[in-house]
Amino acid sequence: MDTTLRTIRIHRFARRGGMMKKRYPIEVLTKDEVRALLEACGQEKWTDRRNYTLLVLLWRTGLRIAEALALRPCDVDLERGAIRVLHGKGGRARTVGIDRRGGGAMRAWIREHEAMGYSPGDVLFVTGSGQRVSQGYLRRRLPELAVTAGIHKRVHAHGLRHTHASELRAEHIDIALIQQQLGHASLLTTVIYVQHLMPNTLFEAMGRR
User: Fold this and answer.
1) Which of 71, 120, 119, 123 lies closest to 93, judged by CA?
2) In this structure, is residue 85 part of a structural domain?
3) Less Cβ around it within 10 Å: N or C end of the chain?
4) What is the number of domains present in the chain?
């Protein structure tokens, strides 16, 4: 194992009081798999449209699930293509970018959210009782949607973050910009993160020599 990666894992181990967290293989979704997952959400009920928008947001911005669920309409500036994340990991605030695909979905949902009687300062992703959608709900719902979509990979919210990061790197986005988008405190964390998402890149580069 790479020495730096091993050091980071030891530090994480220590922060959890010596308890090892179960780790699953990182699985990035293809564009076809993401499309199938979004189609599985449906559009008939308002909760279908809410879930669809939330998944598009996670895919097109790489936000952590807690960051996405804490958003309010007043945090979203679609004219600039920017989203304020006020409660990032470690209490760090940042501003991330959102593209036209993500912005279109967000615009439609914000209009529906307003039509339901909510204000710009209310949480964006709500339940029928007006409470914030829980992380537990999304963790349960995603595997169900994956089955409907015919996806055989392990599908989870953080996997959409992985997918976003791998797509940015494949598009040759500067690693420092990816760090800013993902909210990593250290550039080294981003480098390791992306390397493990795209292991074939090294093999392809060597094959072209």
Assistant:
1) 71
2) yes
3) C
4) 1
Are 56 and 100 within 8 A, CB to CB? no
Q: Which range of residues forms the domain containing residue 145? A: 29-155
Catalytic residue among 9, 49, 84, 158: 158
Q: What 8-state DSSP symbol labels residue 84?
A: E
- Enclosing H/E stretch for 51: helix 46-61
Q: E strands of 47-92, at which residues? A: 76-77, 82-85
Query: 150 to each of 38, 48, 154, how far by Cα in Å?
Result: 12, 18, 11
Of the listed ranges 87-91, 124-128, 171-175, the least confidently predicted one is: 87-91
Q: Give per-residue pLDDT as tens, 37-60.
A: 999 999 999 999 999 999 999 999
On the question of pLDDT at 3 being above 50, the answer is no
Active site residue 193: yes
CATH number of residue 77's parent domain: 1.10.443.10
- Catalytic annotation, pick one of 64, 72, 113, 164: 64
Give the span between the Cα atoms of 164 and 152, in whole angstroms: 19
